[in-house]
């Protein structure tokens, strides 16, 4: 799926991978975060954290409102500064508005804010979703 394109079945392998990533990111609750690597590991498709980052960068502007801002790096920091498409600190401001607190070095405490879906039920749901037509 490309930005602004009508919703349809994913065509390429990247689009299929991105769609799986988006389905998981949509489940992250307000005020919680997941890391790029955590998402890559959970989906068990041999995705890399970098692919998850590309998916967040390419988040479609559709009605789902994928909360891309809830995906951060493994140190609890913001990595969007490398790609300047938004105002500086917009991701951090969005997370702070949801109650996520950052320390002086710009990191949140993953032990407090990191969200982990129940592994067994999450995998079962993803398998069910991804095995549909």
Tell me about the largest β-sheet. 2 strands, parallel
Along the chain, the helix and strand elements come as: HEHHEHHH
Oligomer: single chain
Mean pLDDT: 84
Instruction: Provide the CATH architecture.
Output: Orthogonal Bundle
Kindly, what is the distance between the CA atoms of the first and last residues, rounded to a whole number of angstroms?
17 Å
Note the topology.
Blueprint: H1 13-25, E1 34-35, H2 36-43, H3 49-57, E2 71-72, H4 90-97, H5 110-113, H6 119-130
Parallel strand pairs: 1-2
Could you characterize the architecture of this molecule?
This protein is mainly alpha-helical and 133 residues long. The chain has a single domain (13-127), classed as Arc Repressor Mutant, subunit A (Orthogonal Bundle). Helix content is 41%, strand content 3%. The protein contains six helices and two strands. It has a two-stranded parallel ribbon with strand order 1-2. α1 crosses α3. The longest helix has 13 residues, at 13-25. The model has no long low-confidence stretch (mean pLDDT 84).
Short summary:
This protein has helices spanning 13-25, 36-43, 49-57, 90-97, 110-113, 119-130; strands at residues 34-35, 71-72. The chain has 133 residues and is mostly helical.
Give keywords:
Arc Repressor Mutant, subunit A, two-stranded parallel ribbon, globular, 3% strand, single chain, mainly alpha, 6 helices, 133 residues
């Amino acid at each position: 799926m490309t930005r602004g394109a009508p919703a349809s079945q994913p065509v390429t392998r990247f689009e299929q991978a991105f769609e799986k990533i988006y389905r998981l990111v949509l489940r992250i609750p307000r005020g919680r975060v997941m890391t790029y690597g955590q998402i890559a590991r959970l989906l068990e498709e041999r995705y890399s954290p970098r692919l998850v980052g590309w998916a967040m960068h390419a988040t479609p502007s559709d009605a789902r409102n994928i909360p891309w801002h809830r995906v951060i790096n493994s140190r609890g920091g913001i990595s969007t500064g490398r790609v300047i498409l938004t105002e500086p600190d917009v991701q951090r401001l969005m997370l702070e508005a949801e109650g996520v607190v950052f320390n002086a070095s710009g990191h949140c405490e993953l032990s407090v804010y990191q969200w982990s879906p129940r592994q067994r039920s999450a995998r079962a749901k993803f398998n069910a979703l991804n095995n549909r037509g």
